[in-house]
Amino acid sequence: MNKKIVGLLLAIVLVFAGIILFNTVRLSRPIPTRPSMEIPPINDSAIRHLSEAVRIKTISYADTLPIDTAEYIRFSQFLQEAYPLVHQKLPRKIFNQFSYLYSWQGKNQNLRPYVIMAHMDVVPVEQAAEARWTSPSFGGVLKDSMIWGRGVVDDKGSLISILEAVENLLRQQFQPERTIYLSFGHDEEISGSHGAKSISNWFKENNIQPALVIDEGGEISTEQFPSLKRPIAAIGVAEKGYLSFTISVEKEGGHSSIPQQETSIDILSKALVNLRKEQMPFHVTAPIAELLNRIAPGLSLSQRMALANPWLFKSSIQRNFEKDHVTNSLFHTTLVPTIIASGIKDNVIPSVATAVVNARSLPGDSEAEVISFMKNQINDARVRIIPDKSNKEASPTTDINGPAFRKIEDLSYKIMPDVIPVPYLLLGGTDSYNFNQVSDGVIKFGPSIDAKGYHGIDERLPVSDFRRMIFFYTLLVRESGK
What we know:
Number of strands: 17
Helix content: 25-40%
CATH topology of the largest domain: Aminopeptidase
Radius of gyration: 26 Å
Distance between the termini: 69 Å
Low-confidence stretches: none
Number of helices: 14
Strand content: 15-25%
Number of domains: 2
Mean pLDDT: 94
């Protein structure tokens, strides 16, 4: 009897081992490679143009703060002087003074158009951080084969690359097969409500449905998965939602010399601590599932085995991705307090305490589900949760088998040797979110490599990246009919 039990157990173990081995072998196929192209050199004028663009302070501060219109006028004049053929040959529409849409008529009007996007506004530089910059924050300095300055990565590098490519093609009297639109917003850093949203509404009003909309987003990375020993092109096919909530507590205050056992600040503090104790559920979205499927063959045997058999190794997979705050954010809707406000004087106990909590939601996690999770975590009826009126949930996901993704996938092979193109879920927000109402081919990708310093200190773009970006947009326009 014991021998039968042992034999049965051994058979079960062998079956499980066989399944694990079979799945692992199936996931161990070679990762495809394709030949890349030689990237042509760029003119010194291109570098000069990007440096000049960085020196113009097109800063977005906040929705409620005015912009420096003189700097935006200066930027418009700079564009007209630097790219005369673009402004002579491509009709330009102006939206809310400072956002622009250029149209380049294609040969074949039966082909749906492409929209190539970038934004001209940048985030401010903290005055206290200025001294920590290697070069002046708005200097546009060329140093160590890199161009330094606020906005050179986010997103003037893309904008100038696009215009350099188009100007060069116009100089060659090139005409694209399909119509190309260049969409440049002026308020992406504060939601794009006056720029990209207005432009996308124009497309909707005119019943124009682009086959491809490409904007900033994912990039080429050699750092995210170093064990691959190959770069990945993270092609964004969706972006997380942007949800903000005001957490509010009201309780009678008074003199600080006779405090009650609990104040509005105490209640709010406890609520925030409870909120951060747990995360919303771990979830593998469709883009990330395909990303893992594509890179798995290049990972270690143990990693391949785990990814090939998630039914058995789900917990270890989850723990591994949750170790790093970046990869953790790919699998969770995140919530974090970003603003706390309370009190008017050091000897007055405030009657009101508030905090702003920002959530970046996964596709499938609705605002209502996020609020429900917050209420359960806080577990205190005295704490009010008020959603912001401008909240937006995660974008739709562009089909990875569709022509938009395939086009950018094909171009990524051509501009980067040995690259692995993968779909990607963008953690931040972009202007292209607004174009989901008119296009099923929204892509978020720029071919820089592991961009450094965006929204921080020492923002910089290697000249080699700038060169690749110009070539990428040149190929995109040249091959738009394929």
